[in-house]
Amino acid sequence: MSPTSWSFAEQFVAEDDVLLAARARADEVGVTPIGSGGGATLRFLAAVLEARTVVEIGTGTGVSGLWMLRGMRPDGVLTTVDIEAEHQRLAKETFHEGGIPPQRARTISGAALDVLPRLTDGHYDLVFCDGDKREYSAYLKEALRLLRPGGVVAFDNALWHDRVADPAQRDEETVAIRELGRQVAEHESLVPVLLPVGDGLLVAKKEWAGEA
């Protein structure tokens, strides 16, 4: 795909002033949110799933959270986890500016691998992971427990700045993301796809019991 076509696809669903303001906050605090193409994909997934319950690992300033909330059911609740309480404060500003009622966004401050085990098994429609790349395999394990059958897990940065596809790149984060891709592709209860949106979005559906 040419850079022109890639940019056209990324910008196909335009971001409004609320999302642009959230991106500006992200720049100020050194957070890199999901790209617009990835955000639009998350909204699409939430809408197709008619998601009522979503878990997000890595709140940032609310860019990805707002995209998902806009695709979820009107009574849907986003549970978003981040180790930085200040980021979550900024995300709440984003959600407020986006017209999201406070009860629809539950923010939990803490390390993901401390928080996720406290969430309910088989309760969630969508789990989106954009936290510590070195923990992605652990997030997958938790997501498989948290998702209902037919639910979807998604990982941002699945191409990691073009490093994952280059075997010569062996830094810890790249190796961790590459291993995650292998695990997802080989998992017998997942239906996976790797989408070249943004920095790569790895998506997989948890199959219903008894499905072929």
- Average of the residue pLDDT scores: 96
CA gyration radius, whole angstroms: 16 Å
Class from secondary-structure proportions: alpha/beta
What is the multimeric organization of the chains shown? single chain
Q: What percent strand?
A: 15-25%
Read across the widest sheet, the strand sequence of neighbours is: 3-2-1-4-5-7-6
* Major β-sheet annotation: 7 strands, mixed
Shape summary: globular
- Count of alpha and pi helical runs: 8
- Strand segment tally: 7
Order of helices and strands: HHHEHEHEHEHEHEE
Task: List unreliable stretches of 5+ residues.
Answer: none
Features:
single chain; 212 residues; 41% helix; globular
Question: TL;DR of this structure?
Answer:
The chain contains eight helices and seven strands. It is α/β, with parallel strands linked by helices and 212 residues long. Strands 3-2-1-4-5-7-6 form a seven-stranded mixed sheet, with helices on both faces.
